[in-house]
Amino acid sequence: MRILGHRPQRTLRRPVEVSGIGFLTGDLVTLRLLPAGEDSGVVFRRVDLPGLPEIPAGVRHVTGTARRTTLGHPPAEVGLVEHVLSALGGMKVDNCVVEVDAPEAPGVDGSAGPFVEAILEAGIESQSATRPVLGVEKMTCVRAGNATLTLHPGNENKLTVSYLLDYGSLSPIPRQMHTVDLSPETYRSQLAWCRTFLLREEADALRQQGLGSRTTLNDLLVFSRAGVEGNRLRFGNEPARHKMLDLVGDLNLLGFDLAGHLVGCRSGHPLNVELARQILRQQLESSLDPPCILPLHRFRRAA
User: Fold this and answer.
1) CB 278 within 8 A of CB 25
2) 105 is in which domain, residue-wise?
3) Residues 6+ positions from 207 with CB-CB distance below 8 Å
4) Is 269 among the residues known to form the active site?
């Protein structure tokens, strides 16, 4: 790894709140985004639990990647964090306390858009400390089966993201791809409002497990042989863009910015987190100063 540059850290000007139904529990969930000090990173705080336990949004605290990203251990855990982290990462808000009164973030409309609008409502301000921008010196790739996720070196202080979605010729979701030079402006206009998607049989299986009891076809994209059920696409390649949204959120767990060309092919949360872990190992091995790795004693645990 090598340092390609630095930028000022950023936080919110004031607290802001987002509420919605939880996709997993079906309960009303309230989430508050609060300003935080320099070098504090993103921290989730469970305000519904005794002691208000805090869970740092870091790679080391990931405990689940099956269809969603989960941080922490019961009872001090929080799931479906990827859309909140994506909004914060996409808008370059580095230091934030995320208060939530449930074991998951609100599902809202299945995208990160409502969180982005809340961030803009709160306002963003620069801080004195800086956040490093790191790049790899050689191609770094993780794979599982026919899925790959690769970070290519770059000489500029920017991140380009490409994604290929291909579930095969028999899938009701057509093969599609998207590429974007990531910035707060392109994130908001091209990725933030792209929604969670799944196949009809996947939706039925989740319902049988007792999940998504209050989730409707207006809350996400359900694909069957006839196409999208009871909803309309916001972009022709919205599923591919949503995969990129998730990728931005999962890589925000690193605590520093990446530069280069990031290319995903059929990848999802497990590979996103595995790439983050591999990049973090390279960063530590290269003896670069570890950014925003907070001491565990600073965080309260559940009673």
Assistant:
1) no
2) 2-296
3) 213
4) yes
Residue 170 has a pLDDT of 86
Say yes or no to pLDDT of 225 above 70. Answer: yes
302 within some domain: no
Note the pLDDT of residue 217. Answer: 65
Q: Cα(251)–Cα(59) distance, rounded to whole angstroms? A: 9
H helix intervals, 30-132: 82-90, 113-122
Q: What is the mean pLDDT of the chain?
A: 91
> Do the domain assignments include residue 301?
no
Number of folded domains in the chain?
Answer: 1
State the Cα–Cα distance between residues 249 and 85, nearest whole angstrom.
Answer: 5
Residue 42 belongs to a domain: yes
pLDDT at 156: 85
Q: Alpha helices, DSSP H only, in 51-190?
A: 82-90, 113-122, 184-186
Nearest residue to 186 via CA among 116, 266, 125: 116
d(CA 301, CA 46): 10
Here the CATH number for the domain that contains residue 167 is: 3.30.230.20
Stretch 204-216: mean pLDDT: 65
| Residue 303 domain flag | no
Cis peptide bond upstream of 75, omega within 30: yes
pTM for the structure as a whole: 0.91
Return the number of other C-beta atoms located less than 10 Å from residue 107's C-beta.
25
pLDDT of amino acid 72: 97
Location of structure tokens 């004195």 = 128
C-alpha span between 114 and 118 (Å, rounded): 6
Binning pLDDT at 50, 70 and 90, where does residue 174 land?
very high
Task: In whole angstroms, give the CA distance from residue 261 to residue 247.
Answer: 13
The single residue of 61, 178, 261, 269 carrying the catalytic annotation is 269
Model confidence at 299: pLDDT above 80? no
* Predicted local confidence at residue 199, as pLDDT: 74
Structure tokens at 74: 């019961």
CA dist list (Å): 216 to 30, 69, 88 = 19, 21, 26
